[in-house]
Structure formats: structure tokens, C-alpha cells
């Protein structure tokens, strides 16, 4: 839903074309960043958590960009 809202509010008007959907910079979602490749595969950048009884901790936070991530 967030992606739909972002693409609908583009400065140049709503754009749901292939180039908009496969933006290499991706999009910021509720639980991290995501993007779609030209073949439709989704890539996500999520946090890594350690879960233990009665507690959990963030081992590595979710990335904010795809800059240092491989395709």
C-alpha cells in the first residue's frame, strides 16, 4: 500500500510504469527497504534480530539504502 501511495503522489503525476516500479533506489516500507528487479524479484533490507526467552535485541538494524548491498 505504501508503494502505491508513493507512486501516486509523484511530482509528475501518478506513475505505475516499469521504470517507476524497478527504481534501483527502492522504497521505504513499514519494516525496511525493498525494491523490485526487472524480472520481478523483490529484494528487501531487513533488520537482523536475536531472539531469546523474555528478550530480543537488534544485532544489525535494517539498512536505509541499497547503496552497499549487492544486486
Helix share bin: 10-25%
In angstroms, what separates the terminal alpha carbons?
24 Å
Q: What's the total helix number? A: 2
Query: What class, by secondary structure content?
Result: alpha+beta
Strand content: 25-35%
Q: Which of globular, elongated, flat, extended, rod-shaped describes the shape?
A: elongated
Strand count, sense and barrel status of the largest sheet are:
3 strands, antiparallel
Low-confidence stretches: none
From the alpha-carbon coordinates, what is the Rg to the nearest angstrom? 15 Å
Question: Which strand order do you get reading across the main beta sheet?
Answer: 1-2-3
The total beta strand count reads: 5
Helix and strand succession?
Answer: HHEEEEE
Mean pLDDT: 88
Characterise this structure.
By secondary structure, the protein is an alpha+beta fold. 15% of the residues lie in helices and 32% in strands. The chain contains two helices and five strands; from the N terminus they run ααβββββ. It has helices at 2-8, 18-21, and strands at 27-29, 32-36, 42-45, 48-52, 55-60. The strands form two sheets. A three-stranded antiparallel beta sheet has the order 1-2-3, with no helix packed on it. A two-stranded antiparallel ribbon has the order 4-5. β2 (32-36) and β3 (42-45) form a beta hairpin. The longest helix has 7 residues, at 2-8.
